[in-house]
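Example 461, ligand S-adenosylmethionine.
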Amino acid sequence: MQVELPYSFLNSLQTVKGFRENKFIEAHTLHKPVTSIRINPAKLKNAKADTLLTTWLHERVPWSTCGYYLNERPSFTLDPWFHAGAYYVQEASSMFLEQALRQCLPQNVPLRILDLCAAPGGKSTHIQSVISPRSLLVSNEVIKTRVNILTENLIKWGTGNVVVTNNDPKDFNRLPHFFDCIVVDAPCSGSGLFRKDPDAVKEWSLQSVELCSQRQQRILADVLNALKPGGILIYSTCSYSYEEDERISDWICETGGFTGMPIQISQLPGIVETFSKHSKSPGYRFYPDRLKGEGFYLSVFQKKGDAASRPHEKLKNKPVLASKAEQQVLANYLQDTIPFDFLKWKEDVLAIPNHLLQAVLYLQQNLYIKKAGINMGQLIRNQYIPSHEWALSEPMAPVLPVAEVDEQTALDYLRKNEIHINASHRGWSILQYRGLPLGLIKILPGRINNYYPAGWRILNK
Ligand code: SAM
């Protein structure tokens, strides 16, 4: 579909660095958007990734270790591996976040990272794959209706070091200096995605750019106190507009006590380095006529001040942990690569990596938590009732029998239809497709109960 770009839009970009009007229009009228995915290293160990590589993956995204371009756009909905969390479908330019994380943060040390505007989870799943497994990621989304898809995508990603919250940015004022890094992938006027969503052009106006710019400042102002001195702020948009990009970078440096940080891009042709007008703070622009990706802007800042120790994080209540006997039962269901604590949460039990328990409890005291660690399911009189989240989790221990199924049965399962399997065993089992778990079933005499979550089922035929 051709994209008609309004005159006011093209005119507003004339002085923006890297903008080449004719080539930009050509990219929007003659070329289709590229399709890219990022594989989940926690689930696709090398051998399996190779299988996918030979059938699908076309070329590496130069700025991301797990990002690949695809030759064509398949029906992801009809690929069971998509539902298993084997990969995330993500626009290639936005994978540049990885360079900011790798180049500007200390590596291989435990960090606390906040992804403030996280739904549907592209950046969060990416951050999770890049940070050390001992780090904590808080993935927040303010809009209630968007938290469910964020939670679903992070459950599918399958790792235990993520907390999903549903809070307004200003709520993070309750956590002074808590985070080592905050990522703000801000809501914006969205011009960078015009090629993917031509209807979005109709929503664009100079006025909406200005409103977005003001909102971006408000969001940032609300959250900056939660970043520790010396901490890293990563700001990004999918807008080309100066008001939402370099002007915000200037605002961050001038009002927030921050210094811009450069990212080395000499090996990454096509990315345009820009500098904000007043503070000369660097930013990185992506244009579809210069590289294989859509419009994107990213800049990194360091908060001034000494990286002093954190304020004491006092817990008001004692956590309710599973009893020793219960812990022994539950521990059998997780691989013992890292120790977990088991926290009672309403009817369920959460497995929280032991070294993250204090921080998670402190978050629970201050924020509205939708998901923390791995929801294991329930223990009823020391009898374990497994959960879908556990079945999809990466540290899940292979204690239940596994039913490996063909593509058609996998899709029937994902549609929550009746399924038929020849199995000699009875009881709880993991349903698996090409080596990756899709969820739980219970095999009974003469029938199989399908435990795929009703709200996640595939609806198309
Ligand atoms: N980071 C996400 C990803 O990679 O999948 C995309 C985030 S999208 C660009 C911006 C997000 O900001 C949306 O999920 C939107 O709901 C959220 N948002 C909207 N208004 C907001 C506000 N006032 N404060 C914080 N977040 C807001």
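Summary: The pocket of S-adenosylmethionine is lined by residues 117-123, 141-143, 146, 169, 185, 187, 215, 219 (CB under 6 Å).
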